[in-house]
Amino acid sequence: MTMDPKVLVALDFNNQADAMAFVDSVDPSQCRLKVGKELFTLLGPEFVRKLVAAGFDVFLDLKFHDIPNTVAKAVAAAAELGVWMVNVHASGGREMMTAAKAALVPYGDKAPLLIGVTVLTSMEAHEMPELGIERKPEEQVLALATLTQECGLDGVVCSAQESKLLKDALGKEFLLVTPGIRPEGSAKGDQKRVVTPAKAMKDGSDYLVIGRPITQSTSPLETLKAINSSIA
Ligand SMILES: O=c1ccn([C@@H]2O[C@H](COP(=O)(O)O)[C@@H](O)[C@H]2O)c(=O)[nH]1
């Protein structure tokens, strides 16, 4: 059991009962919880408030990407919910990220961590040119992470395949939140740039986002415990 859990479990469930069955089986010392687009669209802010009230650190993973004013207001609304972490797409640009950061100033030390999404872990090199991106994924991740740091955000979402590169380039304080985590032998699904939990931590990831390998396991709690042991 760890008091600073590194695993952020993605609550990608399609109904409240299943989500709550998992939440009720864990405590805040074992994992943090991530609420993404599916569950938030289904259950809304009330569900997030419920998790926060139960003592969990909640990562609200809505990946805001819009004009600066809209994103700033959305990030402030997330802060009102009391979440621990919230994110925006770094490709929204400097003005958008700077506005998002400024919107959190009134919350002082109660402000959520603000994280920029770089290149989705479901993407790989051959998909980049048709988006007009000629860089390799790791070069694009480094460019967006550098911009994110310049805008004063707390860290980025990236693949753990880029963790070592980013820690070396941007320093140990800049947080790396890494989805695409797959324990040995688990199905990759739609994830492309995958890394095991132990390797991700070794290479400098600060937090591991893990969904299906835990939530679709036959024993979710045992799987979570095994992952926690593997990175202890
Ligand atoms: O680049 C990204 C950004 C976010 N995610 C989210 O993380 C989880 C991963 O779930 P798994 O079931 O472990 O694949 C999911 O909620 C994504 O929306 C990501 O995978 N990659």
From TrEMBL:
Extent of the signal sequence: none
Recorded metabolic or biological pathway in which this protein acts: Pyrimidine metabolism; UMP biosynthesis via de novo pathway; UMP from orotate: step 2/2
**Enzyme Commission numbers on file:** 4.1.1.23
A cellular component term, taken from the record's GO annotations: cytosol
Which family does the record assign?
Belongs to the OMP decarboxylase family. Type 1 subfamily.
Q: Name one GO biological process term.
A: 'de novo' pyrimidine nucleobase biosynthetic process
Q: What class of enzyme is it?
A: lyase
Task: Kindly list the residue ranges recorded as spanning the membrane.
Answer: none
**Protein name per its UniProtKB record:** Orotidine 5'-phosphate decarboxylase
User: What's the domain of life for this entry?
Assistant: Bacteria
Assembly and partners are described as: Homodimer.
List positions binding substrate: 12, 34, 61-70, 121, 182, 191, 211-212
| GO MF term list | orotidine-5'-phosphate decarboxylase activity
Pfam families under this entry?
A: OMPdecase
Name the UniProt key words of this record, in alphabetical order.
Answer: Decarboxylase, Lyase, Pyrimidine biosynthesis
This protein's record includes keyword Glycoprotein: no
